[in-house]
Amino acid sequence: MKKWSVLLLSLLLFIPTRAFAERDVHLFMHSNYVYGDVAPRIENNRVLVPLRLIGEETGCNVQWIQSERKIRITKYSYPSDRVIELTLDSNVAHVSEDYFNKTVRMDVAPKIVDNRTLVPIRFISETFEEKVTWDEANRTVAIGEAYYPPRDFKLLDVHFGDRNFKVHSFVAGDRRMISLKDFAAAMQWPYSFKRGVLGPFEDALTISLEEPSTGKIVTIDDYAGVQCDGFDIYSFHSEARIYPYLLLDGDHYLSVNELMSALHWNFSEEGGDLFLGENNENTRYAVYYNFSDENSNYSRVPSDINWVEYRNNHYYLMPLNKTVDQYWDSEYSFGEDDAHFFGMNNFMLDQETQSVDLMIAG
Prior knowledge:
Helices cover 10% and strands 50% of the residues.
């Protein structure tokens, strides 16, 4: 079992009034900030979080046994499942795995606050062998590997043509993140978000940002990340490997790199200001097919007959002359030259290498 680790990060932050104003303790789980209708709290130097978030964000099965006032949390894993049983207002927990049972005394007991059950996140994460860090500077408990404390909070000056405006911004890892709400308002672009079932996610978030003059729509979701015209925008240029968007205190922040790549814009950060510019030059991207074999290894095969073009403000799959979304919606019948498209999963577009990886199911 991994050891419980406590990381005290001494960071000098320049924090505007909006940053971290709504929550005293933050919870960061598996690449994003997580919020419930009851805020996490600290008792006896331990962080208690809403039980509902455990099930939603970790994939655990959570059961409430009313008659016994018990909570059963099951983590499904190979070769055996691990089960934690907690009782409200009791410091005693029961843990079982592979027919081995043990009783553990916790530092703090589960309790009900504002009709929500709060449980000790340290104990549960430690039992399920999750990495846990505590960032004292930002009062954030982080679960998983991908936590990078937000720093360099500021109202960033942005310049686009004759427009000059400000957006709330911070740096996470090596990525500059900007507020989508601020950006959309300044550009006067429609901006919306909703939650619903998407792929394997039961409560997935989908964000849409539209450029009205061209009809181009950029979407960001929990399943595919950043997309434009149906193409997934490659999001691993960051050394930090953080998710391209973060939800922080009710505001959605997106990596400038991913947003500009999706829009096909140029950008630079100079003297603390961000400069943006449209790039309508035609661009051709080579397509590579990634085939999986029986051993789940992938081979990358270049295509001589298919490619992707950016022209007239959109990405087009050639020679079909369609966006990916248009391609899926059409009744196109596969010809011999397009046989490789059959069984495709997704297009991953990388502007840096001017190439597109087309993932093919085995």
